[in-house]
Write a structure and sequence with these properties.
The chain has 357 residues and is of the alpha/beta class. Helix content is 41%, strand content 17%. The protein has 2 domains: 180 residues, Rossmann fold (3-Layer(aba) Sandwich), CATH 3.40.50.2300; 156 residues, Rossmann fold (3-Layer(aba) Sandwich). The two termini are 28 Å apart.
Length: 357
């Protein structure tokens, strides 16, 4: 596979083009990005003028250190602070019940932009945004239940990227048994599952027929992910793709235990290049989403006076919004990556329509 410009830069470019076309009691409550906290980065005021704008982020139940989705979003806001001097802060949602209060907390503190990270924010965001039309909101992986001019949403074609890692799994499995571990059984995660199975089926129909599927019911329970992975590996599965947030950390932990015992098992990561966190010895590849770049771009638009609400931007393979990391070359053979590229182009051209459910 040809080396590409980093996903971060490509997503920013894609968002620039797409958005231009669209029209002219929480323990982390003090995690303000002004230095002195190990979780945050200090603003580099020497290279950028300080901004008085404040940007808040409410995580989903996976938490800010989920090694995945929420962490990508928070890293984006830390970069915004470093680059512009804008203030940024996060609040963690321990359960669905925390989502609306967390959004309202930022509104009450008069934050200039408030992010809701994840599909589960759809209802809470709609309610809070409707009641506060003068406040601005950003929503990742979801849309309000009705069109709202003060909400900007970014979604991803997870099914397309998942198709490609399905091709990898289908061609590289040695046992012909492949697994999928999901967090909650909601539409966005079903897109991962559907795309993954379609990719496997395209290159290895027999493996697709016997694919093991386990929804652990939570995005914040590594023990459940570990248990699901153990059951699959015991059944002969040698490759597991997870789309389960922090629960997926348990999948990696179980894979490492097996690998240390001499078993030839792999995990396919999600959202970020998870080989950077869990190592190349257990991470076969990852299905990356440009969450960090999307949050950065929309937040920076606000600071630059270019923010546009009332729209939904969906990023797929053609936008470099999803895809495999360059580190895939460490474990995935060149001939397999060539096949991945072949299918990628077929999806972009429309020759292949990837299912969403």
């Amino acid at each position: 596979m040809k080396k590409q410009v980093s996903l971060m830069l490509m997503i920013i470019l894609a968002l620039t083009v797409v958005l231009s076309a669209c029209g002219n009691k929480n323990e982390n409550s003090n995690n303000t990005n002004t230095g002195g906290n190990a979780e945050t980065a200090s603003p580099d005021t020497s290279e950028a003028p300080a901004s008085k704008l404040k940007i808040g982020m409410a995580t989903d139940v996976g938490g800010v250190n989920d090694k995945s989705f929420n962490q990508s979003a928070w890293e984006a806001l830390k970069k915004v602070t470093a680059d512009t001097g804008a203030e940024s802060k996060y609040l963690e949602s321990k359960s669905d019940a925390d989502m609306e209060p967390n959004l309202r907390a930022f509104v009450s503190e008069k934050y200039d932009l408030t992010w809701g990270i994840g599909f589960l924010f759809s209802d809470a965001m709609t309610k809070v945004a409707k009641e506060n039309p003068d406040s601005k909101f950003g929503l990742i992986d979801a849309t309000p239940t009705e069109a709202l001019p003060n909400v900007e949403s970014v979604a991803f074609a997870e099914n397309e990227g998942s198709f490609l890692v399905g091709v990898v799994a289908g061609l590289m499995t040695k046992t012909n048994k492949i697994g999928f571990v999901g967090g909650m059984e909601i539409p966005v995660i079903k897109k991962f599952e559907a795309g993954f199975k379609a990719g496997i089926e395209a290159v290895n129909p027999e493996a697709a027929k016997s694919m093991k599927i386990n929804y652990v019911g939570d995005f914040s329970k590594p023990d459940l992910g570990k248990q699901a992975a153990a059951t699959m590996y015991d059944a002969g599965v040698d490759i597991i793709f997870h789309a389960s947030g922090a629960s997926g950390n348990g999948v990696f932990n179980e894979a490492k235990t097996r690998k240390d015992a001499g078993k030839d098992v792999w995990v396919i990561g999600v959202d970020k290049d998870q080989s950077l966190e869990f190592g190349d010895e257990i991470t076969l590849t990852s299905m990356m989403k440009g969450v960090e770049a999307a949050v950065y771009k929309v937040s920076k638009d606000l600071i630059d006076g270019n923010w546009k609400g009332g729209q939904v931007v969906t990023l797929g393979l053609k936008d470099n919004g999803v895809g495999l990391p360059d580190t895939s070359t460490k474990n995935v053979p060149a001939d397999v990556l060539a096949k991945v590229e072949e299918y990628k182009q077929k999806i972009i051209s429309g020759e292949i329509k990837v299912p969403t459910e």
